[in-house]
Design a protein that fits this description.
814 residues; Immunoglobulin-like; Rossmann fold; nine-stranded mixed beta sheet; seven-stranded mixed beta sheet; 16% helix; disordered N terminus
């Protein structure tokens, strides 16, 4: 007997279910293409998008379905439903999941099926060859740091002469990107994204670390722009060459008005790059052909990375979880020619590749950051998810009653039959009682499980993107089914579900894409119980804003989030990770004052926490632990738990839906009117060293220290007249003397001194000489920790609390 491989049996069994179109007649539809497109031309370890063409030669419109799957994974299929007009061809796309891992093989076998679904019946259209299934090889490449670039004109990467031509804008942009990748020690490979419309889904960009926008070809592709923005919101890295991109296209990519103001364009004959806060010390480089620069005015939300002649040459903006790097200086200003005495370029096709300047390394570190081990992952939401889904088990009291009745029944049987002439009945009756008790447990469990309807639950963290009215959500989902059976999971909200298919081997299931944001499963049968997985979603939910200002009692503002309800357990997270509890009213207004500042390790203000609040506090603890995610480092964020009004996906008719999300909203601070009395809590005042050491204050050491500290007031209250400042300090410093000095005309003025301070220190400073701010709104104090006596203490000193509270009135604006 000849045994066929299991995948061949599955394939032919699937084909046998559909009527076939004969080869003797002209097929109603033809399939062409089906190749990876978008930012990748190969399949890999992430989702990828396949592009294909369907030709309809008939005189009537046709409904078609294209099914694709890897030959090694016939049970997991991906499909796309489309409508093709009469005598027309349609070019479209479909997403397909990760390719199977086959070691070092550089290709994967892909199978495709074409169905004519006109009239509601699936008719399989065979290929013109003798094959019963269309089969082709597609390239495979494992994940690696990949950069994709969008240029206006096609360029051959092997044509180094064309790439080096000064009049080739695309060539100069590619040269710029190559110089950056070489400076970062990355491989030579660079992907030029094909000159056609991008697939309108964020999955098309997965597997690409960074994308470079170096032209305006996306201006006519609004769906591609939206997909690119959603990919950035989910954590992607985008690099925009402002000198080569129209400002209107930049606005469209950001989903809002242009966040910076374009002043003019100039040609620079000399260039000297330097950090924004440093004195220019680099080499002044002359250029015979001027380097173009777009001079812009940035906003407080932008982080300037490099400066030329006092204007930003590169700056950074956070969008959701992702980052966008803008460079306003032309590429030639960021690299220099390679001298004959230098080592050859590491790139085989570019031996004369220019050498990137040191300032280019900072941009490379943003676009291709080193992997960061997260302190928080979606799996940390599992306790909250399991709390809301499933069925209850019998209580301990019920179980004890059943077991007690079982024991009493055995005792009673033994007592009645002890003197009976048929004691052998004890064994039979005892078994009957045991079966009855076990059956009672089964009955209770079954009724308990059936008492809970089919349920879909999600717990996510949602990053709001101000201006775009979108959120980027990720987390966990769970589906509860009382009974086994087909589960028609579907979404029209652009949700991506990473399903756990363990235990479903041999089941052929199909993920069918019906529209840009809509897909559903066919043939997915889940066993009774709970099935979990990860969820990711980019959704347009309307305005989600947290606008605040400083008032007499601290922070006050208003939260706008109409797409969410039951807002609770909120806090403000600061760059220093000092949380402040927030009280939210029913109308969305909120306040946070000095009395709401939370002690270390506490993230909710309630004295007694419910089980749910304790789990939420655990999420806060992990989410705000160091190292914090890069996209949240420089900002004040409002974090609040809420319930989405709309569902991300459905599973069964009549199901119960439970959804919870942690909204993470960047706060926008408005300037109070001149003369307004304001109180700024310590958590919202950044402190850094302003002496030679600079950077963060030293919080622990065994050595004596003298630190000149600068406390920066928030920009929204500067300038202001400070009436008093309260220093909050707690130091564990055995055998040390702790002293605090103010500065009057840059001369130290003693304020406080103590040896071995054990209690928290609260210093109120009202001397106008000591609380006068500098031009940027900074207050200066000197903190000294010195040894007492001649002996050198072995125990290190440690600063546990360091913050400055400021009270005053705002002055007229600058």
């Amino acid at each position: 007997m000849v045994m066929l491989p299991r995948r061949t049996i599955v394939l032919f069994a699937a084909l046998a279910l559909f009527p076939l179109s004969g080869r003797c007649q002209e097929p109603s539809l033809r399939l062409q293409g089906l190749v990876p497109t978008g930012t990748r031309t190969t399949v890999g370890e992430t989702w990828v998008t396949l592009q294909f063409v369907i030709v309809n030669p008939t005189p009537e419109a046709r409904d078609a379905r294209v099914v694709a799957f890897f030959a090694d994974q016939p049970s997991m299929q991906y499909a796309r439903d489309v409508w093709v007009p009469a005598h027309a061809s349609l070019t479209t796309w479909m997403p397909i999941g990760p390719a199977p891992n086959r070691g070092a093989q550089l290709s994967r076998e892909l199978h495709a099926l074409l169905f004519d679904r006109t009239g509601g019946q699936d008719r399989l259209i065979l290929p013109s060859t003798d094959e019963r299934v269309r089969s082709r090889l597609v390239g495979y490449r494992p994940r690696q740091p990949t950069t994709g670039i969008l240029v206006d004109t096609p360029v051959d990467l092997a044509d180094s002469e064309h790439l080096s031509r000064p009049d080739s804008a695309a060539g100069q942009a590619i040269l710029f990107v190559h110089a950056l990748r070489a400076a970062a020690g990355l491989p030579e490979q660079l992907t030029i994204i094909p000159n056609n419309a991008l697939p309108p889904t964020p999955e098309a960009f997965e597997g690409t670390e960074a994308i470079v926008l170096a032209g305006n070809r996306l201006a006519a592709d609004p769906a591609g722009i939206r997909a690119l923005r959603q990919w950035v919101e989910r954590g992607g890295r985008l690099w925009i060459l402002v000198d080569m991109v129209d400002p209107k296209l930049v606005s469209a990519v950001l989903g809002d008005a242009l966040p910076f103001e374009v002043v003019d364009r100039v040609g620079l004959t000399t260039v000297q790059l330097h950090p924004p806060s440093g004195t220019p010390i680099g080499v002044v480089r002359p250029f015979d052909r001027p380097v173009e620069m777009v001079r812009v005015l940035t906003t407080p939300d932008d982080q300037i990375m490099a400066v030329v002649n006092g204007w930003p040459a590169a700056f950074l903006r956070t969008i959701g979880r992702g980052r966008i790097v803008f460079t306003t200086l032309g590429g030639r200003g960021w690299h220099r020619p390679r001298s004959p005495n230098e080592v050859r370029s590491p790139y085989q096709n570019r031996p004369d590749l220019p050498v990137g300047l040191p300032e280019l390394l900072e941009i490379a570190a943003e676009l291709h950051p080193q992997p960061q081990t997260p302190t928080f992952t979606p799996d940390d939401l599992n306790p909250l998810l399991m709390e809301d889904i499933g069925y209850s088990v019998p209580s301990r009291q019920t179980a004890a009653a059943i077991l007690g009745s079982f024991v009493l029944s055995l005792v009673a049987i033994g007592a009645l039959l002890r003197r009976s002439r048929r004691p052998e009945l004890i064994g039979w009756l005892a078994a009957i009682v045991a079966v009855a008790s076990a059956g009672l447990f089964v009955l209770l469990a079954t009724s308990s499980r059936r008492a809970v309807p089919p349920t879909v639950a999600t717990v996510t963290v949602s990053e709001a993107v101000p201006g775009s009215e979108e959120i980027a959500a990720s987390g966990l989902f769970a589906v509860y089914s009382p009974e086994s059976g087909e589960t028609p999971i579907a979404t029209n909200a652009s949700a991506v579900l990473d399903f756990d298919f363990a235990g479903l081997e041999g089941q052929t299931r199909r993920r069918v894409q019906t529209d840009t944001d809509a897909w559903h499963f066919e043939g997915l049968a889940l066993p009774g119980g709970v099935r979990t997985g990860r969820i990711q979603q980019s959704a347009r939910v309307g305005s989600v804003l947290a606008v605040a200002r400083f008032g007499a009692n601290g922070v006050e503002g208003r939260l706008t989030a109409a797409a969410f309800q039951n807002l609770e357990d909120a806090l403000v997270s600061t760059p220093g990770r000092d949380p402040i509890a927030v009280r939210i009213a029913a109308d969305g207004s909120f306040t946070a004052g000095m009395e709401d500042v939370l002690p270390p390790g506490q993230f909710l203000a309630s004295a007694v926490l419910t089980d749910k609040q304790q789990r939420r506090q655990d999420v806060y603890r992990k989410l705000l632990a160091s190292p914090v995610p890069r996209h949240t480092q420089p900002r004040q964020m409002l974090l609040v738990w809420a319930e989405p009004r709309d569902r991300a996906f459905t599973a069964q008719p009549g199901e119960r839906s439970i959804a919870s999300t942690l909204l993470v909203i960047p706060m926008e601070f408005e300037r109070p009117a001149a003369g307004t009395r304001v109180t700024v809590p310590p958590a919202l005042i950044q402190v850094r060293r302003s002496d030679l050491a600079r950077g963060q204050p030293t919080m622990e050491s065994v050595y004596p220290a003298e630190m000149r500290l600068r406390f920066q007031l928030p920009e929204s209250v500067v300038p202001m007249t400070v009436e008093r400042a309260i220093l909050h300090l707690r130091v564990r410093a055995p055998s040390r003397r702790v002293a605090v000095d103010g500065l009057a005309d840059d001369q130290p003025v003693p304020i406080f001194a103590a040896e071995n301070p054990a209690e928290p220190i609260r210093l109120e400073i009202a001397d106008p000489r000591l609380i006068r701010t500098d031009e940027q709104g900074g207050l200066h104090l000197v903190l000294s920790i010195t040894n007492v006596g001649d002996a050198v203490p072995e125990t290190p000193w440690r600063i546990e609390t360091l913050g400055l509270e400021v009270v005053g009135k705002t002055d007229a604006g600058r």
